[in-house]
From TrEMBL:
Transmembrane intervals: 12-30
Organism field: Branchiostoma belcheri
InterPro entries (UniProt xref): FKTN/MNN4/W02B3.4-1 (IPR009644), FKTN_N (IPR045587), LicD/FKTN/FKRP_NTP_transf (IPR007074)
GO biological process, one term: glycoprotein metabolic process
Name of protein: Ribitol-5-phosphate transferase
Keyword Membrane: yes
């Protein structure tokens, strides 16, 4: 390859570059492959790639010392650190290693995130803040409305802590306050726009993992452990918590809009309306329980979605409930699961590969399930007229799913709700309409052919549910 005596300088440079590239490749390979995450060598790599994280470890230990004395129910919710815990073959506990090792906490991405299980009385005591300040911590605490007190009937929205930032030298700790909602899940607020400047002064160019939008999470069991010599609480099942983060976005119902709707159109309901709303709520709870149990995602669609978006409630004259489900999430156990829960199959239209639709009956209230298909830059669900076999296609702009709380239940709605509702009901969606023809009234409906008569026994199935 080369002659050392003649070209020793070139050989030296060549070998130096080759060795360096080999070392960089090995570090990159270990750093980017899950099977190595949480290992002792990964800890060294993290410290080499993130030299400031060692100081973050020391700062967190000092911070936890102060907060533990104040009995604050803090737990670790930092995605990078919990990922290292999850992937570690040695488990979460790290009691044998001291602060000289940084196997987990050095995985953080510049900000270590903690959760605080809050209630309406959570407030940091002045002596705790003073002691933290004396140890070099700067802080910002933001407050905002308490959604647990808000409703269509009430303007009450007491102030509660939402987020807290603590900075000591170059280390930042972000505390996300989580509140249990009536729907038995945990909720956190978004960072309000007016607080952004205050936060920027402490965060700098670091990226916060939580606060871009409101979030919703299942309640979780918290257990004590020790990571890199620091005593912390963590979710008992880190993997389950991490899995929720990408789909955690939460949308609050617009109570102010609902009050305006109520003022404009009234809220008086007949005895029949009140009875229907009670039955519909029960059916929503039943349907949610079935689909949650078999692991099928669903969202409130059509009139049910409109009722939530427009008036934060059920439309009394709708007389049915509507769910949407991705066709890719359909499974053969769905129909038997509903029947086992006491819901009768009323009709089955279409095929799984085209315009599939199910309807179940509970008493005199119907649950329609529309299956959605993805096609280029649109999403659509189908409809079938039982008498003629005509097919219809309802077209929506592409959308993603968010959580909301509806009738004290945690359920999904399209994140792009306005566009979704406008597609289905037009720009006059705000005005109540009692006469609605599913084949002609929706602005997004279009003819989609007709089922061949020989296929009708398969694609048009009606059942006696008396």
């Amino acid at each position: 390859m080369c002659v050392w005596r003649r070209r020793y300088q070139r050989c030296f440079i060549f070998l130096l570059i080759a060795s360096t590239l080999s070392l960089i490749f090995q570090i990159w390979f270990i750093h980017s492959n899950p099977q190595f995450q949480g290992s002792a060598f990964q800890g060294m790599v993290n410290k080499w790639l993130n030299p400031g994280n060692k100081h973050a470890q020391e700062t967190l230990k000092l911070f936890v010392k102060h907060t533990s004395q104040a009995d604050l129910p803090l737990f670790l919710m930092d995605p990078a650190v919990l990922s290292a815990v999850r992937n570690s073959s040695h488990g979460a506990a790290d009691d044998r290693r001291g602060t000289q090792h940084c196997r987990y906490l050095c995985s953080s991405q510049g900000v270590i995130t903690l959760g605080l299980l809050g209630d309406s009385h959570i407030k940091l005591k002045p002596d705790l803040l003073q002691s933290l300040h004396a140890d070099g911590f700067q802080y910002v605490i933001t407050e905002g409305h308490d959604p647990r007190l808000a409703s269509v009937a009430s303007m009450a929205a007491g102030k509660v802590p939402h987020h807290m930032l603590f900075r000591r030298q170059d280390s930042v700790i972000h505390i996300v306050v989580l509140y249990e909602r009536p729907g038995k899940f945990l909720w956190h607020a978004a960072v309000e726009p007016e607080n952004t400047q205050k936060w920027t002064s402490l965060v700098g160019d670091r990226e916060l993992q939580f606060g871009q939008y409101e979030g919703a999470y299942d309640k979780m069991e918290i257990i004590p452990t020790k990571l890199d010599g620091v005593k912390l609480n963590i979710p008992k099942d880190p993997a389950a918590f991490l899995q929720q983060i990408p789909q955690s976005r939460f949308l609050e119902c617009d109570y102010e809009q609902a009050r305006k709707f109520q003022t404009s159109y009234g809220s008086d309901q007949t005895v029949e309306d009140v009875e229907f709303v009670g039955k519909a709520r029960s059916l929503l709870s039943q349907g949610k329980a079935v689909l949650d149990r078999i692991g099928v995602r669903f969202w409130m669609s059509s009139g049910t979605c409109l009722g939530w978006f427009r008036q934060c409630g059920i439309i009394p004259h709708s007389k049915d409930m509507d769910f949407g489900i991705w066709i890719k999430d359909y499974r053969d156990t769905l129909i038997p699961a509903f029947q086992a829960a006491g819901l009768s199959l009323k009709h089955r239209f279409g095929k799984v590969e085209d315009s599939f639709e199910l309807s179940f009956q509970s008493g005199d209230v119907k649950l329609d399930i529309f299956f959605f298909y993805e096609e280029d830059d649109i999403m659509w669900n189908g409809g079938t007229q039982a008498r003629t076999g005509k097919k219809f296609k309802y077209i929506f702009p592409r959308f993603t799913l968010c959580w909301t709380e509806f009738l004290d239940m945690k359920v999904r709605v399209p994140c792009q709700t306005l566009k979704y509702v406008q597609a289905n009901y037009g720009t006059n969606w705000y005005e109540p309409v009692k006469q609605w023809d599913w084949k002609n009234s929706p602005p997004n409906v279009q003819p989609n052919g007709q089922w061949p008569e020989e296929e009708w026994p398969e694609v048009i199935q009606l059942f006696d549910v008396r």
